[in-house]
């Protein structure tokens, strides 16, 4: 049986991580747009953005698992 308090602490951290990840994605999108305006190559910046987005998806999946554990608890 999961420790509900422990899971709630994990949920709070997951929420912070997701918020931070969303900020980073937004910042990267802005950077890419600026790079395009300046005529710079954005290939690496776009690859990094994809990595950020994949990480964010994984954090959302992890958050869902935590919520499931709390619901069972």
Task: Describe the protein in words.
The protein has 73 residues and is mainly α. The chain contains two helices and no strands. It has helices at 4-37, 43-72. The mean pLDDT is 96.
Return the structural class.
mainly alpha
Radius of gyration over C-alpha positions, nearest whole angstrom? 17 Å
* Net shape: rod-shaped
**Largest sheet, if any?**
none
Give start-end ranges of low-pLDDT stretches.
Answer: none
Query: Helical proportion?
Result: over 70%
SSE topology string: HH
Strand content: under 5%
Overall mean confidence score, pLDDT: 96
Strand tally: 0
| Count of alpha and pi helical runs | 2
Spatial gap, N to C terminus: 6 Å
Element layout with pairings:
Blueprint: H1 4-37, H2 43-72
Helix pairs in contact: 1-2
Concise synopsis of the structure shown:
This protein has helices at 4-37, 43-72. The protein is mainly α and 73 residues long.
